[in-house]
Amino acid sequence: MENLENLETIEDRYQKIKKIGEGTYGKVFQAKDLKTDQIVALKKVKNDYEEIGDEGIPSTALREISCLKALDHPNVVKLVDVVYIMKKNKLYLVFEYIDYDLKAYQKKIGKIPEQTVKSYMHQILKGIEHCHSRRIFHRDLKPQNILVNNKGDIKIADFGLGKIFGIPLNTITHEVETLWYRAPEILLGDKLYSLPVDVWSIGCIFAELIIGHPLFHGDSEIDQIFKIFQFFGTPKSSKLEGTYNLKYWSNLFPRFKSQKDEILKPIIETDPQAADLLVKLIDIEPAKRISVSQALKHPYFDNIQSPLNSQIFNF
């Protein structure tokens, strides 16, 4: 890590305006760059000494920096700068400032129009397609990590759990809300999961944008997997195509019958193509899930509109 500026404090360069978020890995502020007058998002990285990497920097920050430096796409948030205050051992990541995350935006406006959902989904898939083509998968996709600006542009953010293929890493955050978007193979203990985990999360986000609430909202890991089984029906065995070893599988799991048709009926009646894409994104068997590239070619996107044509923004 290189300290490009000899700053005594972060306030020598950035004027904090307000706190806009706080997560597992640090606080995020809206701030003004005193050198350029640009409004930015300033992420103060938490010093968790259990997560310190070889360079004395938290491993989550190192992963995020490594991933973002390898990515350059309109639908991935831009890392503007990395500032290390050597005297105080403080690390800050500086990002382009985006108005809302999807969770906050949906809470603000209520039901999102169908064409806007379509535009958002197309952009999310394009951003993740770029990530996957660069051998990176996100592993923590959820509405809070999908940003949207006042032009309707989507930016994928928070790569603290991002992983570059070939680097062994088993850590998964245990925040309850993250559970709602976590693929069943992770919940069941498969250590060799891969790109389909992002596809599952995108499917869960898609469902939430349509119905207005999480599709699977368990309050623990076991409750989450049971919610998934209630939707699909409990699999007959642990031999799910695309998995290796489901460490937490039990033959004593309750035998739920599928409620999928009943739950999806309103979506099927309103937009059959949306329902078809959704079930392809959240297939319980990872090997059968559609890829992001295949999803982008789905007929659901045949009549896509630009975001400004699909929704009036008044942030």
Automatic annotation (TrEMBL):
SUPFAM superfamilies in the record: Protein kinase-like (PK-like)
InterPro entries, A to Z: CDK, Kinase-like_dom_sf, Prot_kinase_dom, Protein_kinase_ATP_BS, Ser/Thr_kinase_AS
Gene Ontology MF term list: ATP binding; cyclin-dependent protein serine/threonine kinase activity
SMART domains, per the entry: S_TKc
EC number of the protein: 2.7.11.22
Catalytic activity, reaction form: L-threonyl-[protein] + ATP = O-phospho-L-threonyl-[protein] + ADP + H(+); L-seryl-[protein] + ATP = O-phospho-L-seryl-[protein] + ADP + H(+)
Binding positions (ATP): 43
Stretches assigned to the Protein kinase domain: 14-301
Gene3D superfamilies: Phosphorylase Kinase, domain 1 (3.30.200.20), Transferase(Phosphotransferase) domain 1 (1.10.510.10)
Quaternary structure, from the entry: May form a complex composed of at least the catalytic subunit CRK2 and a cyclin.
Name of this chain's protein: Cyclin-dependent kinase 2 homolog
